[in-house]
Design a protein that fits this description.
Blueprint (H helix, E strand, L loop, with lengths): L8 E13 L5 E19 L2 H4 L13 E6 L9 E4 L3 E9 L7 E8 L3
Antiparallel strand pairs: 1-2, 1-4, 2-3, 3-6, 4-5, 5-6
């Protein structure tokens, strides 16, 4: 379990909005900040132990980071995390390690533009 002093990085949590037609037959991906959008997180590099938490059969790239945040019911595997000044992570696994709705552990992959 992480203590509040270890959650030192302020991140922004976002969820996908419905795709918007781009007028050329395609769609534009849109994102909206969750409410509240800001969260305090501890961020560590992902290890093989963290990868064991990902459900079997999940298709994903290699996990790059593990984030721990205070519990929020609106964070899912569709959520993305923006870390200033410009890093973007995609959440691939969400777990409540104690089943007490105190903290969430997010296994993430870095989105490379």
């Amino acid at each position: 379990m992480t203590t509040i002093n270890q959650k030192r990085t302020r991140v922004t949590l976002q969820a996908p909005r419905p795709a918007v037609p781009d007028g050329a037959g395609g769609f534009t991906e849109a994102w909206a900040d969750l409410a509240p959008a800001q969260a305090q997180a501890s961020i560590t590099p992902a290890t093989a132990r963290h990868l064991e938490r990902i459900p079997a059969g999940t298709t994903m790239a290699t996990a790059t980071h593990l984030l721990t945040i205070w519990y929020r019911p609106d964070v899912t595997t569709r959520t993305r995390v923006f870390i200033p000044p410009g890093r973007l992570l995609s959440v691939v696994s969400v777990s409540d390690p104690t089943n007490e709705q105190r903290e969430l552990e997010l296994v993430c992959t870095e989105v490379v533009p």
